[in-house]
């Protein structure tokens, strides 16, 4: 079996839904999937400023374990999902990446497959840049970066060549449309197939 770790941060549910679709694609290609949600770094007072944030966090934290270094060691491929934060990765996901310094120092992430996807409120809200930004730590870890490109018709309908993406249209609780979900499922399949071939080699 090919072990696929999907680590995401989601506030309103868009990135969560994309992560679930990536997981579906990975499982459909025979991957064993762990789905993990990065945890909040801000206090309740900040969360209270955004409608539904506390409630969504409580629901998702009950549904998904927090990611760990052991998860990263277990994985053949690590897929990272983030909402665009002014074109960059969310602080919550970045904090988990920062915690992997010990694995990096021992070279234990080198050779693993890495991929990324993102969500934003607007069509030009930084999805491409957020996914592309995640390639930088993957390179430092020595990972084999696997974007979806345009290797499937789904990628011509939605997403970006750097990773699947979704746009909420500024609605709290906005969810991906079917084209966006299809691009995420393809990414899950693609990553799993590449990771399997690398492991076999």
Explain what the structure shows.
The chain is of the alpha/beta class and 201 residues long. It has a single domain, classed as Rossmann fold, CATH 3.40.50.360. It is built from nine helices and six strands; from the N terminus they run E-H-E-H-H-H-E-H-H-E-H-E-H-E-H. It has helices at residues 14-28, 44-47, 53-63, 69-74, 91-98, 101-105, 127-141, 154-157, 178-200; strands spanning 2-8, 31-37, 77-83, 113-120, 144-145, 165-167. Strands 1, 2, 3, 4, 5 and 6 form a six-stranded parallel β-sheet that branches. Helix 1 (14-28) packs across helix 9 (178-200). The relative contact order is 0.21.
H/E element sequence: EHEHHHEHHEHEHEH
Largest sheet: 6 strands, parallel
The total of helices stands at: 9
Averaging pLDDT over every residue, what do you get?
95
Q: What is the CATH superfamily label?
A: Flavodoxin domain
Radius of gyration: 16 Å
Strand content: 15-25%
Q: Any low-confidence stretches, pLDDT <50, length ≥5?
A: none
Instruction: Choose one word for the global shape.
Output: globular
Structural class, by secondary structure, is alpha/beta
Q: What level of helicity do the residues show?
A: 40-55%
Distance between the termini: 14 Å
The CATH C-level class name: Alpha Beta
How many separate domains make up the residues? 1
| CATH architecture assignment name | 3-Layer(aba) Sandwich
Please tally the β strands and state the result: 6
């Amino acid at each position: 079996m090919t072990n696929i770790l999907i680590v995401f941060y989601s506030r309103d549910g868009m990135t969560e839904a994309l992560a679930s679709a990536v997981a579906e694609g990975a499982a459909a290609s025979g991957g064993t999937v762990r789905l993990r949600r990065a945890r909040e770094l801000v206090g309740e007072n900040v969360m209270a400023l955004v409608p539904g944030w506390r409630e969504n966090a409580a629901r998702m934290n009950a549904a998904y374990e927090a990611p760990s270094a052991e998860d990263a060691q277990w994985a053949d491929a690590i897929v990272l999902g983030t909402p665009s934060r002014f074109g960059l990765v969310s602080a919550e996901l970045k904090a988990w990446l920062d915690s992997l310094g010990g694995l990096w120092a021992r070279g234990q992430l080198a050779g693993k497959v890495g991929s990324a996807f993102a969500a934003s409120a607007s069509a030009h809200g930084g999805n491409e840049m957020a996914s592309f930004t995640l390639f930088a730590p993957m390179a430092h870890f020595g990972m084999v970066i696997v974007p979806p490109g345009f290797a499937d018709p789904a990628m011509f309908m939605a997403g970006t060549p750097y990773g699947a993406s979704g746009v909420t249209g500024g609605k709290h609780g906005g969810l991906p449309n079917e084209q966006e979900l299809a691009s995420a499922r393809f990414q899950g399949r693609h990553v799993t197939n590449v990771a399997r071939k690398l492991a076999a080699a």
